[in-house]
Design goal:
Two copies of one chain form a homodimer. Chain A is α+β, with helices and mostly antiparallel strands. Chain A contains eight helices and eleven strands. Chain A binds a DNA duplex through helix 7. Chains A, B: Residues 147-219 form the HTH crp-type domain.
Chain lengths: 229, 229
DNA sequence: ATCAGACTGTCAACTCCTTTACACTTGGCA
DNA sequence: TGCCAAGTGTAAAGGAGTTGACAGTCTGAT
């Protein structure tokens, strides 16, 4: 099994809590392994947990009756998820799926909420981070309206690259990702994404391999995107 | 001028604060009037305030260099906005514009944050509400991927109708809104929206007049949207 | 080492939305 | 009252992305 404490310490959402609070929380944490593409939970289920990605990566997604899937986010190791932790009683709105083989650390929502009440210095950090997530989703929405397909796809790749090497120094970022999944994130088809990607690839801004995407120089990609519109 | 206290009392974001806290806050509130389509603030400006719509309605929006505008939300009387209140130091991400003639009540961010520290019982409500905004924006993103144009436009109108008569009983909802603005919200053109709207209108689910939209029976519109997939 | 399954490249037909253009209606204001 | 700006209806031409179909390529598991 995994050691909960270091993971709790590194979770940004809990950064406002003192060490003693994390010690209280640690024994309640439950580690869970998932294989790639295994469902972690479905939308609508009545749970209220905070989950932390301890290893691997997790997709936030949902799908409609006709089998089309929407990938709303891909969360890297170290990030947290669990949309309803702060809204007790509400059913889950989105689903979560293992993107790679991964380990997830679950914290009961009730325990977290009562802990925050006893250590209120943890609240401002949480509010700040949830707010920032709200902006970034709104920014995506904004891009859908204001920018062309190429800029939108580029930005999404850039975002993934930045998130992926948040810990390491800024340099080339490489991660597992199929074109099908990019399409699911963009609300397009694999073929539609293909044409745009060929363009960006021809300029050396991204490189593709079987099931893998590499951004050699994130800064250069960013500069290019800004010229587009 | 307007009386701040009743407005603070009715603001859901402040619902967790005791009466005495609101009394502390009231003298710091500053009311401000805006004419229709007047800019309240632009993205990038360095302010940190919580704003409450005391009268009229406010658009959250931004626009690109070529003059295209994206309307991200239309906020009704009673709702709050100010994306960076909980992230001190961050510049505003989106702009705000008066939708009708309106009155906005501004609360300094520093004052609000220090007040919450002294009355931490206010935090859970704030976290809950910001979380819920996050879901609803993510739901829009999801719809863009999973559902067709007609379902998306219908849902947006329904959402506006529900928000508009949140206080009154559920019945017909009527509000000022041009087709151009609907298009700006959907990331489409006026003409593109027109065709879809003709369809929905023919079934009596919505009615249009010059600069005005009416949803006679929100429940029926909702039922229709769900048949679309 | 090899084979099945997953991933990718490409193409043509089609659909939907945009662009461009113009005529018409509505409502407020001088 | 009459004018003008804002809002609306409509239609043809064009483009961008989807659908569907198929062949090629890579990887991991047996």
């Amino acid at each position: 099994m995994i050691e909960p404490l270091p993971i709790l310490r590194s979770c940004p959402l809990l950064a406002g809590l003192p060490e003693e609070a994390l010690h209280e929380l640690a024994p309640l944490a439950r580690g869970q392994h998932y294989k790639g593409d295994e469902v972690i939970y479905l939308p609508g289920s009545m749970q209220s947990q905070l989950s932390i990605v301890a290893e691997g990566r997790v997709r936030i997604c949902s799908s409609n009756a006709r089998g089309r899937e929407a990938t709303l986010a891909i969360l890297d190791t170290g990030t947290w998820f669990g949309d309803t932790v702060f809204s007790p009683g509400a059913p889950r709105v989105f689903g979560a799926t293992a993107h790679d083989d991964c380990t997830v650390l679950d914290l009961p929502g009730t325990a977290l909420r009562s802990l925050l009440q006893r250590y209120p210095q943890g609240y401002p950090v949480a509010l700040d981070l949830v707010s920032r997530r709200l902006w970034s989703v709104m920014s995506i929405l904004q891009d859908d309206v204001l920018r062309g397909t190429e800029a939108r796809i580029g930005r999404r790749l850039l975002y993934l690259a930045q998130m992926h090497n948040a810990s390491e120094d800024k340099g080339a970022a490489s991660f597992r990702l199929t074109r099908e999944l990019i399409a699911n994130m963009m609300g397009m088809t694999r073929q539609g994404v293909h044409r745009v990607l060929k363009n960006i690839e021809a300029q050396g801004l991204v490189e593709f391999a079987y099931g893998r995407v590499t951004v050699p120089d994130p800064a250069r990609l960013q500069a290019y995107i800004e010229t587009l519109d």
